[in-house]
């Protein structure tokens, strides 16, 4: 049986850990509210912009821009894995990485070439599985909160690589926030911009005049749309990270409490056994006299 001193030290250590996890839970809960509001507020704009781009693309045709038409090939796929910079967030980062690996395995099974673009420190785990497949590791450590500037930097880099012929299709992986308990890993094609097929969709018959032309507007909106979709992913990730961390720290705090109870019982039993042993020794010594 463990010594009383060792048990006492262990109980103290677990209590210290419990204080830390409880504090982290409270911090995550405070950050979650702001991050959730930002993520929810950003969804309508991103969805509406996708709709506007889709509408213009149907009128103009996908051949109007490489970001719509693509390279004409479907061989090299770039998987953009957006994760957090910090850990201790439950399965948040693991689920995103797992979704990206699953997609990579599907593409490789179909004979495609897969490359990875890392955005976020925790995505670097991909280097273990694809040590030669990482084309970029975008540092987000300076970003305290999700920002459009960071998203635009990533979008500009991706578009430049696309125009240079480094890949044919880009997919973005992140976690869509649903609640503090549920964050859904998402994989979406962002380059070339995927135009959803609407049954019966056709060019609008309404008399609409564009100034400048539809082609010019589309050329301006396409890069902006890529940046907005990445910004949306960063916002969703920020909320998902805090929700997952809050849940993980809550579970850790409760587990620490359970461990403290078990160790306390063990400590009391050991202490009682020690006292009993001392009494037996005293009584035995008295009888010997």
From TrEMBL:
<dbReference type="GO" id="GO:0045259">
    <property type="term" value="C:proton-transporting ATP synthase complex"/>
</dbReference>
<keyword id="KW-1003">Cell membrane</keyword>
<keyword id="KW-0813">Transport</keyword>
<dbReference type="GO" id="GO:0005886">
    <property type="term" value="C:plasma membrane"/>
</dbReference>
<comment type="subunit">
    <text>F-type ATPases have 2 components, CF(1) - the catalytic core - and CF(0) - the membrane proton channel. CF(1) has five subunits: alpha(3), beta(3), gamma(1), delta(1), epsilon(1). CF(0) has three main subunits: a, b and c.</text>
</comment>
<dbReference type="GO" id="GO:0046933">
    <property type="term" value="F:proton-transporting ATP synthase activity, rotational mechanism"/>
</dbReference>
<protein>
    <recommendedName>
        <fullName>ATP synthase gamma chain</fullName>
    </recommendedName>
</protein>
<dbReference type="GO" id="GO:0009579">
    <property type="term" value="C:thylakoid"/>
</dbReference>
<keyword id="KW-0139">CF(1)</keyword>
<keyword id="KW-0997">Cell inner membrane</keyword>
<comment type="function">
    <text>Produces ATP from ADP in the presence of a proton gradient across the membrane. The gamma chain is believed to be important in regulating ATPase activity and the flow of protons through the CF(0) complex.</text>
</comment>
<keyword id="KW-0375">Hydrogen ion transport</keyword>
<keyword id="KW-0472">Membrane</keyword>
<dbReference type="Pfam" id="PF00231">
    <property type="entry name" value="ATP-synt"/>
</dbReference>
<comment type="similarity">
    <text>Belongs to the ATPase gamma chain family.</text>
</comment>
<dbReference type="InterPro" id="IPR023632">
    <property type="entry name" value="ATP_synth_F1_gsu_CS"/>
</dbReference>
<dbReference type="InterPro" id="IPR000131">
    <property type="entry name" value="ATP_synth_F1_gsu"/>
</dbReference>
<dbReference type="InterPro" id="IPR035968">
    <property type="entry name" value="ATP_synth_F1_ATPase_gsu"/>
</dbReference>
<keyword id="KW-0066">ATP synthesis</keyword>
<dbReference type="GO" id="GO:0042777">
    <property type="term" value="P:proton motive force-driven plasma membrane ATP synthesis"/>
</dbReference>
<dbReference type="GO" id="GO:0005524">
    <property type="term" value="F:ATP binding"/>
</dbReference>
<keyword id="KW-0406">Ion transport</keyword>
């Amino acid at each position: 049986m463990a010594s009383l001193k060792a048990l006492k030290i262990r109980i103290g250590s677990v209590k210290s850990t419990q204080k830390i996890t409880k504090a982290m839970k409270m911090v995550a809960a405070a950050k979650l509210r702001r991050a959730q509001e930002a993520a929810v507020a950003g969804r309508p704009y991103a969805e509406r912009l996708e709709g506007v781009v889709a509408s213009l693309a149907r009128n103009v045709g996908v051949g109007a821009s490489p970001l719509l038409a693509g390279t004409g090939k479907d061989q090299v796929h770039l998987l953009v894995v957006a994760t957090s910079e910090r850990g201790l967030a439950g399965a948040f980062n693991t689920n995103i990485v797992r979704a990206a690996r699953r997609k990579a395995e599907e593409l490789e099974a179909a004979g495609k070439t897969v490359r990875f673009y890392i955005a976020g420190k925790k995505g670097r785990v991909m280097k273990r599985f694809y040590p030669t497949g990482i084309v970029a590791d975008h540092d987000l450590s300076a970003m305290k909160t999700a920002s459009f500037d960071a998203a635009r930097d990533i979008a500009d880099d991706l578009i430049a690589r696309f125009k240079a012929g480094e890949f044919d299709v880009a997919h973005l992986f992140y976690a869509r926030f649903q609640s503090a308990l549920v964050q859904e890993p998402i994989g979406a094609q962002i380059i070339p911009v995927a135009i959803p097929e609407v049954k019966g969709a056709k060019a609008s018959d309404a008399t609409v005049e564009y100034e400048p032309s539809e082609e010019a507007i589309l050329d301006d909106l396409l890069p902006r749309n890529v940046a907005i979709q990445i910004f949306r992913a960063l916002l969703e990730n920020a909320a998902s990270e805090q929700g997952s961390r809050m849940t993980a720290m809550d579970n850790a705090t409760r587990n620490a409490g359970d461990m403290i109870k078990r160790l306390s019982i063990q400590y009391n039993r050991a202490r009682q056994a020690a006292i009993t042993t001392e009494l037996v020794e005293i009584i035995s010594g008295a009888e010997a006299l």
